[in-house]
Amino acid sequence: MMMQLFFTGILLAAGFFLILADMLRLPVMGAAKAMLNTGKENKKTKTTEVWLMAGAIRLSKYIRIEAYKRSRMASILKASGVAMTPEVYTAYAITKSGAIGLGALPCLFLLPLLAPVLVILAVLTYFQETKRADEQLREKREQIEGELPRFVATIEQTLKASRDVLAMIETYKKNAGPFFAHELEVLTADMRSSSYEAALTRFEARLNSPMLSDVVRGLIGVLRGDDSAVYFQMLTHDFKALELQRLKGQAQKIPPKIRVFSFLMLMCFLFTYLAIIAMEIMNSLGTMF
Asked: pLDDT tens-digit profile of 125-148?
């Protein structure tokens, strides 16, 4: 009887939702997914993300963020490629963690021990979602900073024959990585539509990288007619030193990983020898009896 009432309630709720969705002219699931997939590369929006985003958009109307914090968050979201406003981004984190936290309510009656786990998971999800844009931006910045030594070396060699900054950037863009190529594409488009110095300044502000700031300072000097050959030679030397330090740091992280796999291989060899010895002992015992 209880199961019948349960399923009847689910069907009634689904029916009321469909009627209200038709009356309010809400977009169907396929249309909502198509809108969220716009601008994404090789990523498909899940159904749960569509529902969460719909709730986040409604909740964002009631969220107020301080002007400075909102401006900083908007810059981070734009630089990391997250197509959300700061209000929607914050509301999405609240909605996702709240959806997990609501799961603790039925657990209080069915599985009381699971309720605290869901509450902790909801809190962790909130902090993870609020830091997602910063993590994406940090990953993007690291990828770009890894290419800057080669970019600076290319500029140093090009300055011997030409001082056309736009041509330098367009030439290097063809061989750049995906993140850096995208940023250079935005930079070149901005340089064609506005002043070169202003475009380079906005390029620097988007990523907020100290290494990129040094490169932009040198390029602005080239635009102003300064003899920047020596500057880029010194910058190339400094960036090569930083690249060596970064590679050494990555190399130091490899031995602990190798130790784990070496231990696993050792255990496999031991189990192999033990299995062979055990089989020989069983065969010898079988021949004796």
From this structure: 888 888 888 888 888 888 888 888
pTM of the predicted protein model: 0.62
Inter-axis angle of helices 132-158 and 210-223, nearest 10: 40
Q: Which amino acid is at 235?
A: L
Tell me if residue 39 falls in helix, strand or coil.
coil
pLDDT at position 224, please?
86
Residue type, 11: L
CA distance 71 to 120: 30
φ, ψ of residue 269 in degrees (nearest 5): -60, -45
In this structure, the dihedral spanned by the alpha carbons of residues 202, 203, 205 and 208, taken in order and rounded to 10 degrees, is: 180
Size of the chain in residues: 289
CA 216 to chain centroid, in Å, comes to 25
> What secondary structure does DSSP assign to 223-239, as a single string?
HTT---HHHHHHHHHHH
Angle, CA 129 vertex, CA 123 and CA 133 arms, to 5°: 150
Side-chain-side CA neighbours of 29 within 13 Å: the count stands at 8
Q: Tokens in use for 248?
A: 């050494």
Q: Give the C-alpha separation, 101 to 117, whole Å.
A: 10
- 57, with CB counted inside 10 A (0-12, 13-18, 19+), is middle
Distance between CA atoms of 134 and 127, rounded to whole angstroms? 11
Burial of 186 (0-12, 13-18, 19+ CB in 10 A): middle
For residues 208 and 179, what is the distance between their CA atoms, to the nearest angstrom? 15
Mean pLDDT of the chain: 78
